[in-house]
Design brief:
This protein is an alpha/beta fold. It has 16 helices and 20 strands. It has two domains: 254 residues, Aldehyde Dehydrogenase, Chain A, domain 1, CATH 3.40.605.10; 185 residues, Aldehyde Dehydrogenase, Chain A, domain 2 (3-Layer(aba) Sandwich). Strand 10, helix 10 and strand 11 form a beta-alpha-beta unit. The longest helix has 18 residues.
Length: 465
């Protein structure tokens, strides 16, 4: 049975993709392995010449890609365009591979002995990507992998597979050799078969923490290199000196952009001192004006969540929070409601004075639910954030440089923001967290990605007179 793909706002079918059988997965890996023999011998300058062409082709099709993302994911066109832009930036970074792959040399490390380290590709690499960024996250992976001389097999989310097809169709138009880039579709069984295939040398994954842990364990057992990014619960600390319209807009964008379905979504505000009393009504007022609807429609500011299952999960958290006595500043029944569309719409929800140890403040809800926690000091706020089992990103809003410096030094996350709602680094910096937000040593993009997709080889030589 093929995977049917729908417009997440309307429920209308927009395409389908075939599910790969076990024998087809083996054939794809074999094709990628065969292509690796020739592709790895192509000079790196020639490989990136094709990627320059690919980056330009993506620029030409960026509106088509954004529309594809918006339709199959549900996010607004504004969000989708930004996603495509970030993906193209990763391709542009990969175009610098001739210098990124450079090794080190030390002549005369001993008498008459020279030592050189060099980077070589691994072989066939696999990527397993989530629904929430169907263009950007694949582009974080395969351009860097193939620029380094590897071949690649992508298994995108079954909820958003069409954008990947468009990415690979564009690559074929740029005349990348057959077998260098490959895409297969399916559910969990397809991903597991790809991870365990003996022809796959490395696996890159983005998803929930439970799934990331399972991917790491399965890949390590099969003696593969693995990079598995998991979930998040990102804390935004607001100091009393930063309660203003700029902070309000940053928090709203962080918490409710993409309907909260981001691994960098700021889902908890820790308001220090009297900041909460002043900030909470500002957030409620701003959120009450957000227009829900089909993401590709003009003027829409928040689309649906990805599925009815996601809707049920989010509503479960909200109902349990209300039953436990949590204070809802903006109850969904009092919201401006979802539009007359069949998609899984969740109006933005804000809870105040949330218990920092409750599931509302600790679990990754992955939806448009914001919890406001109160703290008496910066020290207490950092302690609340650092007790999380996640460590993806966190931001502070302040005008005090000393407070920002202390926060950056003490907060236990991989990405830190100062007066930034979404602390997303550019493609030439590493992306990833700590604790249960990542399983594996190397992060996505930047120099970490180059290290992940290559192996170092050290040559020690002596040439007697």
């Amino acid at each position: 049975m093929p995977l049917e793909v729908t417009d997440k706002a309307t429920g209308a079918p927009i395409g389908s993709v075939p599910v790969a059988r076990a024998d087809e997965i083996a054939q794809v890996v074999a094709r990628a392995s065969q292509a690796f023999a020739g592709w790895s011998e192509v000079p790196v300058a020639e490989r990136v010449r094709l990627l320059f062409r690919y980056a330009d082709a993506l620029e030409q099709r960026r509106e088509d890609l954004a529309l594809s993302v918006s339709r199959e994911n549900g996010k607004t066109l504004t969000d989708a365009r930004a996603e495509v832009r970030r993906g193209i930036e990763a391709v542009e970074f990969a175009c610098g591979m001739p210098s990124l792959m450079m090794g080190d040399a030390l002549p005369d490390v001993a008498r008459g002995v020279d030592c050189v380290s060099m980077r070589y590709p691994l072989g066939v690499c696999a990527g397993i990507t989530p629904f929430n960024f169907p263009a950007m996250i694949p582009l974080w992976m395969f351009p860097i992998a193939v620029a380094a001389g590897n071949t690649f097999v992508l298994k995108p989310s079954p909820q958003t597979p069409l954008t990947s097809e468009l990415l690979f169709e564009t690559a074929r138009e740029c005349r990348l050799p057959d077998g260098v880039l490959n895409v297969i579709h399916g559910e969990r069984e397809t991903a597991e078969a790809l991870i365990e295939h003996p022809g796959v040398a490395a696996v890159s994954f983005v998803g929930s923490s439970a799934a990331a842990r399972a991917v790491q364990e399965r890949a390590v057992r099969a003696h593969k290199r693995v990079q598995a990014l998991g979930g998040a619960k990102n804390y935004l600390i607001v100091m009393p000196d930063a309660v203003n319209a700029t902070t309000r807009d940053a928090v709203v964008g962080s918490a409710f952009g993409g309907a909260g379905q981001r691994c960098l979504a700021g889902s908890v505000v820790v308001a220090v001192g009297d900041a909460g009393d002043r900030l909470a009504p500002m957030l409620v007022d701003a959120v009450s004006r957000l227009r829900l609807g089909r993401g590709s429609d003009e003027g829409v500011e928040m689309g649906p969540v990805v599925s009815d299952d996601a809707l049920a999960r989010i509503n479960g958290y909200v109902e349990r929070a209300l039953a436990s006595g949590a204070v809802a500043l903006r109850h969904p029944e009092r919201s401006r409601g979802a539009p007359d569309l069949p998609g899984a719409f969740v109006p933005p929800i804000i809870f105040d004075r949330v218990d920092p140890e409750s599931e509302l403040a600790r679990d990754e809800i992955f939806g448009p639910v914001l919890a406001i926690v109160r703290a008496s000091s910066l020290d207490e706020a950092i302690g609340i954030a650092n007790r999380s089992r996640y460590g993806n990103a966190s931001s502070i809003f302040t005008r005090d440089g000393s407070a920002a410096r202390e926060f950056a030094a003490r907060i236990a996350v991989g990405m830190v923001g100062v007066n930034i709602g979404v602390a997303a680094p550019m493609a030439f910096f590493p992306f990833g967290g700590v604790k249960d937000s990542i399983f594996g040593d190397l992060r996505c993009h930047g120099k970490d990605a180059v290290a992940f997709y290559t192996q170092q080889r050290v040559v020690v030589s002596r040439w007697p007179s």
